[in-house]
Amino acid sequence: MRTNSAAAAFALASLFSGAALADGTVNIYTYRQPELIQPVLDAFTAETGIKTEVLFLDKGLAERVAAEGQNSPVDVIMTVDISRLTAAKEAGITQALNDETINGLLPAEYRDPEGHWFGLTKRARVVYASKDRVTDTAITYADLADPKWKGKICMRSGQHDYNLALISAAIAHWSPEKTEAWLTGLKANLGRKPDGGDRPQAGAIVAGECDIALGNTYYVGLMRTNEKDPKEKEWGNAINVIFPTFENGLTHVNISGAALAKNAPNRENGVKLIQFLAGHKAQQIYAEANYEYPVEPGLEPSEMVKSFGELKADTLPLAEIASHRKAASEMVDRVGLDDGPSS
Ligand code: FE
Q1: Residue 80 C-alpha to ligand 1 middle, in angstroms?
Q2: Cα separation of the two ends of the chain
Q3: Would you say the C-alpha torsion 148, 154, 157, 161 has a positive or negative sign?
Q4: Cα of 21 to ligand 1 centre, how many Å?
Q5: Distance from residue 158's CA to the centre of ligand 1 (Å)
Q6: Same fold flag, 6-121+255-299 and 123-252+309-339
Q7: What is the 83 CA–ligand 1 centroid distance (Å)?
Q8: How far apart are the C-alpha atoms of 186 and 189, rounded to whole Å?
Q9: Which CATH class is domain 123-252+309-339?
């Protein structure tokens, strides 16, 4: 995530209070990286003539909107991860939106039943496997607790949103008891203390610290095409993607999404933006530029993402996954996952 200087944020805030509140604009607060959403916002402006004003934040989005209260200039909130979307709803900074167009475009499992958030892209939580040392072509989520992987698994913190969502999905599929036993087995299999983001786990595989790792799909595309950082290119090319599954044969997915802000001053334009983001053109851009999976049924991902193999996405409603987050977080602490394998 990009950090904005206070000055830049202030300049934007001033801008919002003036011209941006006029007709023909939609104001966006986002945790998403500028390069990931700008192409899709440019396409929106080209089609509708509505200008976008974006405030990029790396933390405190919900707190900021709550503090701004009724005077908040934000119309649409865009973020990754189901937990951040549900947190925005719980913080009372979103409003229910029941829009036929949007509901017709987005499958029900990827949106809030009450219309407070909408999933716009999917990403799968998969296994990065060493091309050199792993011959397995199928690994289930349950397999990650198999002693055959002892000392061979790397992952980022269990308390990170992406892992909490996966553990929450496990709780929904299995039971809290079975999930805790699984997590204990997974901890025992770690090659090192959980640390860093998803990409460095691929780096740890290259360094020989582990053979497999947990990571999101789009990072593989981003690593393999990283012209600025040859090291990441090497990491991305050193691993295969394996789609782990639950017993239903389906792989855990998370979303990036959008929500209509509670006090959206340009409500109509905000709705138009979410309609656009759910639509075909935006879905295509997301797929090509970001290596994410479109939520539009039947729309194919990019060639790069297709090269990973076929994703069979879990149909567990994201809202149900979100409901187990607290239990998942407490479980991570209880088993001491982040302490690493030896404790
Ligand atoms: Fe990410």
Answers
A1: 7
A2: 32
A3: negative
A4: 31
A5: 15
A6: yes
A7: 13
A8: 5
A9: alpha beta
Query: Which CATH superfamily groups domain 6-121+255-299?
Result: Periplasmic binding protein-like II (3.40.190.10)
Looking at the whole model, is its pTM more than 0.85? Answer: yes
Give distance in angstroms: CA of 17 to centre of ligand 1: 31
Separation of 18 CA from ligand 1 center, angstroms? 33
The CA 290 to ligand 1 mean position distance, Å, reads 11
The rounded Å distance from CA 216 to ligand 1 centre is: 7
What is the CA angle 148-152-156, rounded to 5? Answer: 130
Instruction: For the chain, 343 residues long, give each residue's pLDDT as a single digit of tens.
Output: 344 444 445 445 545 544 444 459 999 999 988 888 999 999 999 999 999 999 999 889 999 999 999 999 999 999 988 889 999 999 999 999 999 999 999 999 899 999 999 999 999 999 999 999 999 999 999 999 999 999 999 999 999 999 999 999 999 999 999 999 999 999 999 999 999 999 999 999 999 999 999 999 999 999 999 999 999 999 999 999 999 999 999 999 999 999 999 999 999 999 999 999 999 999 999 999 889 999 999 999 999 999 999 999 999 998 899 999 999 999 999 999 999 997 5
Quote the tokens at residue 119.
Answer: 């999933």
Rounded distance from Cα 169 to ligand 1 centre (Å): 18
* Domain range summary for the chain, segments of one domain joined by +: 6-121+255-299, 123-252+309-339
- Distance from Cα 306 to the centre of ligand 1, integer Å: 19
List, in sequence order, every beta strand (DSSP E) within 131-280.
153-154, 212-216, 239-242, 253-260
